[in-house]
Amino acid sequence: MGSWRAFNWTLVAAPFLLVGWVAFSARVLPFGTEAERTDLPGFDRALEAWAPFVREARKVGTDATIESRIERLLLVYSKMPEAPRPVPPTQLGRCFNTDLRRPLYAAATAVARETLAVLHTLQEQRQYQRFADLAWGLTCLAQSLRQSDVIALIEANRRLRELQEIIERALPHLTDDQIAELSRRFIWLEERRKPATEICRTDLSLLTSLVGRSDSDDTVAALEVLRSALREAKTGAGVESFRVQAGELKPSVLRDRVEALLIAWQVVLVQERENRELAMCAIKLVRTEEILRKGLDPGDVPNQGIPAAILTDSPR
User: Fold this and answer.
1) Could you give the angle at which helices 253-293 and 9-28 cross, rounded to 10 degrees?
2) Contact, 117 vs 108, CB < 8 A?
3) Which of 219, 257, 300, 313 is at 20 to 30 A from 189, Cα to Cα?
4) Secondary structure (3-state) at 283
5) Lowest mean pLDDT among 34-38, 90-94, 120-124
6) Cut 0.70: pTM above it
């Protein structure tokens, strides 16, 4: 488990960052037309893609035996969208567990909790084929939803951290084929990673839709600060410096909202950096074991056979 100790700071830092963001947002949420839905095109389609998963997840926890619990979870995971499918918020400032997406949040939470409990049991019973299948399902669930908003991203990291500690303990007991399959699946998912700045772009679009009828100098200046911050974030840089520019805006609810979004965006960037590190650590851990099983030295295999496209540190 030592491989994951480097990430433990987030267990302390992330909640405090998030509490700060929520408290600040709570002060500025009243914003004229805030009660109206301003979700972007495609929201209903994205949410509907998860409907079969949500319906099946309602039955999780009703099975008595470990065999039936396993079959239930495998069925639930089979109802997930085939490709990662985040669901963005319907309103600016709303979180994954507070708006129309709450049934999906509740379903994902219940499935994750049940999966972790079953994984511990499977490890004790040495049922490693089903262990590998469920470990992959939970990884895919966390990563598929991580772009929904900052709450979903923090939740994804928490799940990955819990899951990967379990995988690390089980790794010596998996067969060569199980390890090779996990390696392939982890790489497949990382190759399809979408940039976390999509969360920021969605926030900007939602704010723009709220103030879109205003062409005042204050509105134009506020939106330009956020547009500039988003461009900088896409290069891989942070957005802290733009809080100075936001502070120079005319005091108003709009300025408070801009400052709150910049706080949230910085949390997004920090959490996404950790998410990618967690994902790459899992890939390297499994690939190293796979190479050793073949009687090779991992140092003699270029990049451990990991595609160069997911090894780059450039913004994605």
Assistant:
1) 160
2) no
3) 300
4) helix
5) 34-38
6) yes
99 alpha carbon, distance to own chain's centre: 17
Return the sign of the alpha-carbon dihedral for residues 169, 173, 176, 179.
negative
What is the distance between the alpha carbons of residues 6 and 128, in angstroms, rounded to a whole number? 27
Give 299's contacts (C-beta < 8 A, 6+ positions apart).
none
Instruction: Quickly state the pLDDT bin for 159 (edges 50, 70, 90).
Output: very high
Is residue 30 pLDDT above 80, yes or no? no
Predicted local distance difference test score (pLDDT) of residue 40: 60
Q: Please tell me the distance from the alpha carbon of residue 204 to that of residue 228, in angstroms, as a whole number.
A: 11
Question: 253 and 30 in contact (C-beta within 8 Å)?
Answer: yes
What confidence category does residue 35 fall into, taking pLDDT thresholds of 50, 70 and 90? Answer: very low
Instruction: Burial-class residue 224 by CB neighbours within 10 Å (0-12, 13-18, 19+).
Output: exposed
Of residues 264, 205, 269, the one with CA closest to residue 234: 269
Per the CB < 8 A criterion, the answer to whether 146 and 192 are in contact is: no
23 burial via Cβ count (<10 Å: 0-12, 13-18, 19+): exposed
Scanning the chain, the segments in alpha helix (DSSP H) are 9-28, 43-49, 51-57, 66-78, 102-125, 128-145, 150-170, 176-191, 197-211, 217-234, 242-247, 253-293
